[in-house]
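Pilot study result, target chain (293 residues):
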Amino acid sequence: ERGLTIVQSQDPAFPPALREAYDAPLFLYVWGKLEERDRHAIGVVGTRRITTYGRNVTKKLSFELAHAGFTIVSGLARGVDTVAHEAAVAAGGRTVAVIGSGLAKLFPAENMALAEKIADGHGAVVSEFPLHTSPDKQTFPQRNRIVAAWSRALLVTECPAWSGSLITANLASEYGRPVFAVPGPINSPTSTGCNRLIREGATLVTDGADILDDLGELPFARQPSLPFAENNAVPELPPEEATVFAALGDQESGVDRLIDATGLPSQVVTATLMKLEMRRLVRALPGFRYVKR
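Predicted structure:
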């Protein structure tokens, strides 16, 4: 009754990066819908015992990445996973929850409402396990490898020294994925794992732009190699962003001109320009002027 489907590894909807992993599952049980853009994914993982600091940074970074067009992949667990999924939904983006149980035994049960919201137009809840498989100590590490392999990069926002998130980070490194970590107070046990990851070579992150800069090409960014006519087409964007982006034309424009050209309120135009800048579609110039990249 949940509208479940089975996506086999050879199906177009199966994430290409996961398909290429040496230990990829043969198929996935899917509640919701997988889309082509879900190949542009960033895994977000961390502690179940999240602190206020961890909640704030996870919400901020996940929101920024989802808004920039990346699908947030996490495990639907308590703590960091839950906040990451919620932030992606709040950003109007997509998120995929990879669970360590069968879809008929969703765990934790308290996240059923969140799972329903994700499956209802915001992404998908997926599992490689038969529907009635209960979670155990073996299923969670297996789940972690899917998060690591699916994602273009992995972000660890808060975790102690004994966290399973470190296993996911090690798996991501094995798959050749870049690992990012948020630093925490040196006297906070819940950040010991992240600080250790940074010491061992993970990239320190304090803002979503740090990850976007490192990854380079963005899902909604225009392709510079396309012919001129195609390269100047308006990307697939939410209505207000598409309107402001189109109004920019080929010359730099001031905010006042954009307000007149779009008919949108000033606060909407300025907020939309910030979103387009986050997507790396426009560049801010001195004097509150903007130009397409």
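One observation from the pilot: The chain is about 40% helix and 15% strand. A full batch analysis is planned for the follow-on phase.
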